[in-house]
Amino acid sequence: MTMPWVDLPCYLNGHLGRLGDARVPVMDRGFLFGDGVYESIPVYGRRLFRVDDHLDRLGRSLKALRIEDPYEREAWLDLLRSLVAHLPEVEDQTIYLQVTRGVAARGHAMPRDLEPTVLAYTQPSIALSPEQRHQGLSCVTARDFRWQRGDIKSISLLGNVLARQLAADQGADETLLFREGYLTEGSSSNVWIVRDGALLTPPPGEALLEGVRVRLLQELCEELGIACNLRPIAETELSTADEILLTSASKEVAPVTRLDHEPVGHGALRGKPGPVYARLYEAYQRAKVLQSL
Length: 293
Prior knowledge:
Blueprint: E1 9-12, E2 15-18, H1 29-33, E3 36-44, E4 47-48, H2 51-64, H3 73-85, E5 93-100, E6 117-124, H4 130-135, E7 137-143, H5 158-169, E8 174-179, E9 182-186, E10 190-195, E11 198-201, H6 212-224, E12 228-230, H7 235-239, E13 243-248, E14 252-259, E15 262-263, H8 275-290
Parallel strand pairs: 7-8, 7-14, 11-12
Antiparallel strand pairs: 1-2, 1-6, 3-4, 3-5, 5-6, 8-9, 10-11, 10-13, 13-14, 14-15
Helix pairs in contact: 6-8
């Protein structure tokens, strides 16, 4: 189902209406400075998926920016569920949630006692096509030129926009980023490699966002008996990996079959989605049913 974005249900500072009617003052610090944080929360079968993990991460990002969380957990859940209810014919949705410091006279220092601006809206989810899953995704690599605090899910996304455009310019789906020779993440994805049957991804830290799906894939690996390790991954390891995977709220778990225009993998599976991906994708679909609230 598609619908014009202006007609999507939108919550803004206590009022529920149409996204096209939402208005924020030009002196909002989110508009002026990108002074805010966000989350994208998947909805499957009209139920929120891993919502506690998303709200926990929202709380960590708010704390890092010294913005007081405007709502208690149950109030957040009520808000999110009310948005889902306002798209009654859509089973699978994606909720975008944003909190900024609020409205104040322009100045770089953080004003005290502002009322945060809270925006949330929901839309029909956009999933990878069967063809994309069958053929796999194409990625390019680049130096990670973004700011140092990648662990904060900030609305200041210009670096990510520039990184994603590098892929778009080459007809690719995503850009994988490296800092001082080591993998950090994609422009909007966590990145994994498979080596000798084990799944590997960089450990949490200030250089990259702790993806909600990192914990999920750790749980799925334990369920499936797949070794899963969080450790630094050198750039050279991607060119020799058995498989490369991406995870995000929209991609779920996705196979990368081409990197810098070269096929990923070895032997008969070179340039094709691999067996670890296939097992994790099936397990992910089961989790969507069992872990949604």
